[in-house]
Amino acid sequence: MDAYYFNEEHQLFRQSIRDFLKKEALPNIEQWEKEGRTPRAFWQKFGEMGYLGLNFPEKYGGLDLDFFYSVILIEEISKCFSGGFAILPMVQSYMSTPYILHHGSEALKQKYLPDAIAGKKVASIAISEPGAGSDAMNIQTKAIKSGDHYVVNGSKTFITNAYYGDFLIAVVKTDPEAGANGISLLVIDNKSEGVSMRKLNKLGWHCSDTAEINFDDVKVPAENLIGDEGMGFYYLMGGLQLERLVAAVGAFAGCESALQYSLQYMSERKAFGRSINKFQVLRHRIAQMASEIEANKYFTYHCCKLHQEGAYVVKECSMAKLLGTELANKVATECLQFFGGYGYMEDYKMARFFRDSRIGTIGGGTSEVMREIIAKMVIDGQEYDEA
Length: 387
Ligand SMILES: Cc1cc2nc3c(=O)[nH]c(=O)nc-3n(C[C@H](O)[C@H](O)[C@H](O)COP(=O)(O)OP(=O)(O)OC[C@H]3O[C@@H](n4cnc5c(N)ncnc54)[C@H](O)[C@@H]3O)c2cc1C
Known about the structure:
Elements: H1 8-24, H2 29-35, H3 40-48, H4 67-78, H5 83-103, H6 106-117, E1 123-126, E2 142-146, E3 149-160, E4 167-173, E5 183-189, E6 195-199, E7 210-221, E8 225-226, H7 232-268, E9 270-271, E10 274-275, H8 280-308, H9 314-338, H10 349-357, H11 367-378
Helix pairs in contact: 1-4, 4-7, 5-6, 5-7, 7-8, 7-9, 8-9, 9-10, 9-11
The structure holds flavin-adenine dinucleotide.
């Protein structure tokens, strides 16, 4: 079945990223989790390998490969038992910089993409605010034009990569009276005067930084506007499909690794004179989860193929994100149970998997929001067109 989606070159790429992660990341993740960040030097190495520019044009330093190379990358980084480690490149390459690539001016592309692809600069996507998460249209951060720049005031919260990062794709209101048509995307340098940040403490994702950000009369050059003023909400709706697809890939890959890890443990752990993988009740649970993971994986691959072919698939991406992240919650709970008390110990990777997977049904649009989108399409016949 995999041969339908991956050719021999894809498989060689999978092996090369596995080797790289085994040597450069896996021995260090525990330490990075304790330190609360993954060092910039690592991301530069990652960038040098080309891993941050798989789907970007060569003229900005990318490799211009097909989307299934990205699927492989996301699967492999999601199998490292650290959601905090995996999220940085996911945000960088699939959730933030694509807005510059698809809608930004040539000057913005030249200024930001080569450094982001090389791992020299780290990007964030800043949508959520203290008073507006799911209801993104209700954001209050304002960017009012004044001559050759915008003056930005407001705040954002829960922004991944921002605290140690370099620039934000910020969702702002350039015309506060115009509803969805008054929202725009601005590139804001984190070091701009008037930007202040606080690092947030989280349940999981410990080696990823998450920030609350305040903008106090921040002057942003007008040329940092991405695309047209007032189009930001529509660009965002398009970009969120890729964000959700990437989340779905990460979710099933994480489930696969949790199941593999559990099977190994269950074959070694003995109770009542036999390996615990001989208890029928546990075997049936494994069989159920293995079936659900596999069905989820191939539905997600199907969505990836549609994405690669250029289709704008809101319903399918929402379904894949909903099912994959809900399944990850279930797999995390049930697999931890197989480990008994050891599952609760930090010495076992299952504890981290349990913490880290919990964000899946919240970030990038909650499960409730996914169900709302799907319900509108399935029940009310609503359709969404790409901006
Ligand atoms: C670790 C982490 C990293 C994040 N990274 C980023 C980032 O990089 N950039 C960014 O912009 N944001 C980021 N977020 C924010 C994330 O996208 C939001 O938390 C999410 O969209 C939900 O928004 P909220 O937290 O304001 O919850 P709310 O919108 O207040 O929702 C609260 C509850 O109400 C439910 N609800 C809301 N509306 C409805 C409805 N219409 N019908 C039914 N139920 C509903 C929600 O599903 C949820 O259960 C991150 C969050 C976390 C925790």
